[in-house]
Amino acid sequence: MKKKQQHPGGGADPWPHGAPLGGAPAGLGSWKRRVSLLPFLRFSLRDYGFCMATLLVFCLGSLFYQLSGGPPRFLLDLRQYLGNSTYLDDHGPPPSKVLPFPSQVVYNRVGKCGSRTVVLLLRILSEKHGFNLVTSDIHNKTRLTKNEQMELIKNISTAEQPYLFTRHVHFLNFSRFGGDQPVYINIIRDPVNRFLSNYFFRRFGDWRGEQNHMIRTPSMRQEERYLDINECILENYPECSNPRLFYIIPYFCGQHPRCREPGEWALERAKLNVNENFLLVGILEELEDVLLLLERFLPHYFKGVLSIYKDPESCRLLSQDFCSKAMLSPGLGPVMASQNCQWHLQGGKEPRRT
User: Transmembrane region positions (predicted)?
Assistant: First the structure.
């Protein structure tokens, strides 16, 4: 009967099937000793140390990744070497918000040119499409000082994008004050029709309130309030002898003092600004075509605007009870235009009533 081999230190031999290559260790306390944790898993302390060192390297790499805000260069090289991985795609930073172009739009609306209708449409569209509609409660200050221009431009430029800012204000040159020039849009109308709309608005207000006109023109006498517009024009009343047909030009000319003076310089400056800064200048008499173009040019703002405008429910909100131009006798339109030319030729002096 064969005796079991005994280890020099006593006890059973840890390698009953023979010592490993390289010879057996000197004793049980040797660092090269093999330890059996599981029946089929054997490793040395050297292997254990190597695993711990590898784990430490990855821990330090992970720490460096978080502190520097990005992966180490060697991890990027490793990813390129191993091929594409979905890890960074799944766990990387979220993609930045892609802004539509243009994301900064200014509608410096001209008074009595359908702006109230357009603003109401914009309120509906801003809720539908999620853009930032920035409005102003200031309605009667279109000319600004230099400091007022700087302050307004700063407030507009810091608004959350995409935004659409709207206010009755003459053209503002953002680039003059170091800002990004936005895209402008506007709507105008036949100057005579605009005068008629304003004539009745000053006397009877609009649909917002029956007493609106009493607030705007409290000192207007009753006979003046109910004065027939045809008589006003034919009798050369001051209000009708200067119909202010030039009123529209400064909205495109700008804040320069000469923009307030009727003449060739202001007109040419306005045309230049329209060509360089305005995406669209529509005509109120062709509003449906204007809305269609806005929907094509600025879909992230105006998509679906034409259908909203034609919707019966929206139509009730958008309707206005202004007197129509049919109240003006035939042939008085050219008379008003002629009077306006005479007023300019006389240096802005009101012609005498005859």
Answer: 48-67
